[in-house]
Each structure stands twice: as structure tokens, then as C-alpha cells.
Amino acid sequence: MTTNATELPVFPWHRGCPMAPPDQYAEVRESDAPVRKVPLATGRTAWVVTRYDLIKQVLADPRSSSARAHEGFPYYIEIPEQFKTDCSFIGWDPPKHTVHRRMAALSGAFTKKRVLDMRPRMQEIVDECIDTMLELGPPVDLVGELALKVPLTIMCGILGIPNKDQAFLHSCTEILFGGGSSATQRAEAIERVGRYLEELVISKENDPGEDLISRMIKKYRDQDMYDRREMCNLTRLLMNGGHETSTAMIAIGVMTLLEHPEQLERLKANPQLVPGAVEELLRYLSPGDLATSRIAMEDMQVGDVLVRKGEGLILVGMSANRDPRVFEDPDTFDLERGDRNHLAFGHGLHHCIGSDIARTELEIVMTTLFRRIPDLRLAKHWSELRYKDGNVMYGVYEMPVTW
């Protein structure tokens, strides 16, 4: 097996199929060097960690930092400076991370009880989107009419963002996280979103409601910790994190079920399988595969490699979720596997705060969609579609379906 950076393609590596990891993941993971230094598209190098146990080790190690403003943080796409500094608690370490994540959690949108209370409204949103699909008639773009609308409507409702602003915010998010955007385009997009969020936050300061932004402002003010810029950054983090992953998962999750018709028929016949199927889809597809990176704040041993202080690590979640040491026959999609040990939502301090919301969205969509449109099928073969390959969040731009 190869062992040095010049012998592997520039990172990020690419999926040949939306339902399969890049070939290099297994090559590196199953070699004698599962932690490998590779060249990045930005011209730098970083360590890519491919094995499940080593990724969990790094995520739990306090010497590995999420500090996105650090000079050595391993960005594999060109990003503006503001992207590094205006990242909220996802780019911070304890104790600052702990305090601000707790403030968001205490505002009440992410508890299991709150998510359960939200379930009827989520169901309404899913039904409304499917109503529209049926009214439009086939072929329909499942991304635009369902996969995007459901999580974006839910998250905007939680935050108190008007529905009329959804399209604008999503267009900016596409630029910010898109692998094909330039640093200049990302800087312009983050400025546009920043201006919008500042106006929104000011309106919540002056006229608070029952939404999450208003509640968070109150929590911060009660603790004499309020900072408007940080509130804008936190809002952007929750908005992006609350819809990008779910949008990807709904679209390529539906695709995966359609491409595994025997599994889909079992699911239709027994809806009780849906929660386990959601876990298997999360493991199998791992759309946030490229979203987890760290910087070593001290020298640290990762497997057989000594990662030096200031060096970056990219933790490829899809490789971990296909690791045969943890998952039997990992490249087989088995909706009855139901294994929650996957790392699709991360691990440790930075485990996704909205994971229960995402799981519930997916459960409702998969149950309702195939009940209401049992003959759903792809209008184009998956190989003809255009994918967000190399983006921070993997996904498909459009997915026409028919019935």
C-alpha cells in the first residue's frame, strides 16, 4: 500500500456512486497505514483518518481541537476569513463550547419531549409537501418539493424565520458549502446572510416571540452574556445544520430505498421497521462525511502515527461507518441492521445537537411518502443526476421522480 501524500489523489476524494464511499477509503483503511497524510485541494496537507476506532479516539481526545480559526485547521476548500471566525460553538472548544451549546440546549428545541411535541406539525409539513407533489403530477423534483422543503420549513419554524425567506437563505447556503464555489462567492454569501440575520435578530430583541431565537436571546440576557454577533452566528449554525443534512438524507435515502426494491417492499409491509431503517440509511449514506475536521493542539499519537502540534486531521465518517471491524458486511444495505453505533451525527462533545429532530423528520418522510405514493420511482437513473460531490455536505441537486 502507498504511504505518502504524493501517491494519493488530492483530497477530497469522490464517490463513484452516491450510495458508495470513494474507493480510497477502503484502500487506506485496510492498509497498514489507516492514518495517512494527503494533499488537499487548497495546496496544504492534512492527516486523513479512516478507521472507526481511531476516529472515535480523535473525537474524544481533548488535544484535538475544533478551533476553525486556527491557522492550521485543515480546510480542503478555499473559504473566507469570516467563515473561520463566525462559526459559533461548532468551531469552539470547552469551556466556551460547553457554555454556548448548553445555552442553545436549554432554550428547549432539542429535547426528546420537545421533538415529540413537534411531531404533529412535522407530519403536517410532510403531508403538505406530498399534497403539492401529487397536485403537480409526475415527474416532480423530489429535492425541491420534499427533501429541501420539509427540513427547511421545520427549522425556520423553530427559529422564527419567515417562510418567505427560505429560498434566499438556502441559495446562500448552497454557495457557502458548495464545493464549486470560489472564496469570493462564499465571502459575498456570508455577508448577505450576516446582514439578513442581524436584521432578524434585532427584530427579535425588540419584539420577542415564542421562537427559538427569542428564547435564546432571553437566556443569554438573563446570564448577562448577550452578544448580537454571536447570536447571529448561532442562528446561522442552527439553520444550516438543521436542514442541509436532512435534505441530503431524505433525497439519497429515498434513492437508496428505490434502488433496493426488496428492502423497500419489506418496509412498506412493516412500518415498524422505519426507525431501524433510518439508522441504517444514516450509516450507509453518511452525507456529512466531510464535515468533521480537527487540529492537534499538542503532539498526539493516532494509531501508528505521531500527529504533531498544529497539524490538521480530517475524520472521514463514511469510512468509519463502512469499517468491517465494527459493522458486519458493511457495504450491504440492510434496513433491519438498526445499529446506532454509526458516526453519522459525530461523537463526543460535538455530537449533533439536532439529531433527534433529524431522525424524526426522516421517520415521518419515509413512512408517509411510500404510504401515499407506493409506486414512486426515479424518473432518471441515478447515474444521470448531478451530485454535491466534494461539498461539506454530500447530496443531489435535483432528483426527478414519477409514479
From TrEMBL:
UniProt KW keywords: Heme, Iron, Metal-binding, Monooxygenase, Oxidoreductase
Keyword Translocase: no
One Pfam family hit: p450
Record-stated family: Belongs to the cytochrome P450 family.
UniProt name for this protein: Cytochrome P450
Organism field: Streptomyces griseorubens
